[in-house]
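REQUEST ID: PR-0412
SUBMITTED BY: lab tech R.K.
PRIORITY: routine
TASK: structure prediction, single protein chain
INPUT:
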Amino acid sequence: MTIQQLLKTAPVTTLLLASFIGLFVMQLVTGVDANNPSTEALVKWGANALPLTMMDDPWRLVSSAFLHIGLMHLLFNGFAMYFFGQIAEPMFGSAKFLALFLLAAIGGNLLNSYVTWQSILDGTGQPGLSAGASGGIMGIGAALLIAALFKISVNGMVLNLKSLIFIMGINLVYGFAVPGIDNAGHIGGAITGLIIALAFAIGYRQRLAVAIQNAAIQHQRTFNSYQTNYSYSTHDNSSYNSQYSGQYREQHDNQGRYDANSIDQSPHLDANSTEQDTAFANNETNTADIYAESVTANNSPLSNEAVHNSIEPEALKKPSVIWQLLPWLAMLLISIGFVWWWQDIHQQLLQVLKAIE
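STATUS: complete
OUTPUT:
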């Protein structure tokens, strides 16, 4: 996919990649080492550092997601963002995708700070720093897992659940196998992405159910539009039957007179032949009467303006607003929870500092 196609399909993904690269270039211009940046340089450019993030610099929870520790770190995360973003952004929408990335990154950084803080309290750890878009990317990957589990399609294509599980598994195993990888940031970002994606998937299922119902209603409307209304008038029907019956009887009378003349003019016909002709004529007369009565009887129910009316289909349904807002409500609750979590760690730090003084 070219840059122009990526910008059209996933503009937020393109802007995120540009910001990663742009920030890295700015570091290089100011003299930061491309492969082994110093701790001072990383802190200066916005890395997540305890206790700074939990004291006066909470903005580091976001800024650290755009900062990378070396060129290889940037390339790895850039490729993952390119791979996940071009699928996830069209699926969730640009606004939700951006919110998902940022909240997953914040969740990862908060979990990292919490684990680091707890290790310091236990005497098994020390203050450190972290940087990179890994937490946000893991959140996007976890969201895609939920999308594949719920069979949410992108342009008619359903994601491969096994492939996503394999990719996410490699990232987690790599994080635990290699020293210095922010595993807490990966896990925190993934959990945040799972929660947000669940809200999105539930809302998607509900909207899909309404769309299927509306499709059925629209199909019924289309079917009913081809049905025709039929009506018969009593006057037209009776006049038709009377005229038809009269013409038939008149024809029979003429035929009877013809038969009588034929008998008179045929002295060679015997009595049996005459009796057969008379019986045939009587039988034909009875048949005409029966046919006329049958026609009248069959049409009589339609004489009361019988009309075939189509059944009026129910009105189209609208999805409930709650299902459309559910992902945003979930993200709002997560944001509130993150604020509370930061405040809790912040208060613990203040208590320890006061105790030390």
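NOTES: Residues 228-249, 254-310 have pLDDT under 50 and may be disordered.
REVIEWED BY: pending
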